[in-house]
Fold Kazal-like domain-containing protein.
Amino acid sequence: MVKYLMLVLFVFPAIALADVTGKQEDEVEHLLDFVKKTECLITRNSTEHKGESAAEHIRKKYDYFSDDIKSAEDFIEYSATKSTLSGQYYTVSCAGKKATKTKDWLLAELKRYREVVLKEAPPSEITICTEPRPQICTREYVPVCASLKGGSAKTMPSGCSACSKSDVVSYKAGECQVFFN
């Protein structure tokens, strides 16, 4: 059995890659593409890299830390924040802007990306959370994509649990990633 499993993993290595769920895989791929296509320079261990080179390095770290990565935020933390050897933070320098940590740059892009995903939902399918907010909800798992104050989006266990949170403005049925065309 072990030999068979090793054969499968050898023949199909993609199966063994990162453990992010399907709903977050699009986010990770978007972030990798965002880095690859950037005009900005990414500094790693005092050496500047263009987007394509930086994206290749980040993907290698993504593959290496696959067992620890469960979300797009984990992907950023483990793969694109700092050097595991030197401990130096990666930075990004864009024309006319102050250099910033790649972690902050990618978290901002992830937030923007999630906002776009939520906005693509037809307005008729969005439920607005109103006062008074629910105090007790069932434990039934019927995931919704909640729009938070500040513009970000987050998958929550149910509409009731979403609206019970004061920072939730509205929600749409399904996990946040369901809205891709």
About this structure: Confidence is low (pLDDT under 50) at residues 4-18.
